[in-house]
Amino acid sequence: MDDIFSRNELFWGIDAQRFLASKHVAVFGLGGVGGFCTEALARAGIGELTIVDFDTVSKSNINRQCIAFNSTVGQKKTTLFEERLKDINPDIKINLIDDFYTSEMIFEKVDFVADAIDTMRSKISLLEYCVKNGISVISSMGAGNRIDPAKLYISDISEIEDKKAPFVSNILYQLYKRGIEQGITVVASREKPFVQKKISSTEKIVTNNGENIEFVKITPSSTPFVAGCAGIFMASYITQSFLKEFNRQ
Questions:
Q1: What distance in Å separates the CA atoms of residue 227 and residue 231, rounded to the nearest whole number?
Q2: Residue 114 forms beta bridges with which residues?
Q3: Measuring CA to CA, which residue among 215, 29, 230, 55 is closest to residue 126?
């Protein structure tokens, strides 16, 4: 019982563990939500992960991101996660995409997508791509500006309880314009968002293919509690979906 996944196997069995090793999940965004989702998927024994992020660790990440320490400030999140995930499971296959997500980014043979993007345009583009290409996806919709992880819940996007929260309402509106009103699983929150001060800035990014992207970045308040739990919710949902698939065989 000293195998790294032996405790998993006590719950769902050896054959199911082998099935999870055959699965491929893409995680977009390696911040507080996406980072904890990625790590939980690796600890569950998912065999292949594609991780996508263009950013480096900053000091403001340290309060909530699992690869953020004073010693890692300035380092690439994708590189840090590759090392961390390989330390968890040396056999895991990691595909790194150290880039800003755009609609030009094509990915294939992915069994599930975890969307932890916090940039509106990229988030909408990814969700639209998944829906139109029949790719299972779960999206984070309620981690910023909150403190109580007990108010997180999982639902279809059509069943979000507070559709008037600014971030959520904008996403729903943009998806509605694209003919998408349901069929996306989300992690949302019943907690009313709160921030002491509204901060925004203009970000300019050059993608790996030379595309210049400019957008307004809204900086939310972020506590140590909600983002990580939202990411673990996402990883649990994905893993349980795979286990249901295995049990249907």
A1: 6
A2: 27, 138
A3: 29
| Cβ-based neighbour number of residue 216 at 10 Å | 10
Tracing tokens 């594609």 back to the chain, one arrives at: 50
Query: CA 22, 228, 10: angle at the middle one, nearest 5?
Result: 45
Q: Which uninterrupted H or E stretch holds 165?
A: none
Res. 142 pLDDT band, cuts 50 70 90: confident
Domains of the chain: 6-190+222-248 (3.40.50.720)
- pLDDT tier, 35 (very low <50, low <70, confident <90, very high otherwise): very high
- Beta partners for 137? 113
- The 10s digit of each residue's pLDDT in 160-192 is 999 998 899 999 999 999 999 999 999 999 999
The two tokens of residue 48 are: 């292949």
Which pTM does this prediction carry? 0.96
Residue 231's φ and ψ, nearest 5 degrees, are -65, -40
Which residue's entry shows tokens 């286990």?
243
How far apart CA 103 and CA 123 sit, in angstroms, is: 10
Segment holding 161, helix H or strand E: none
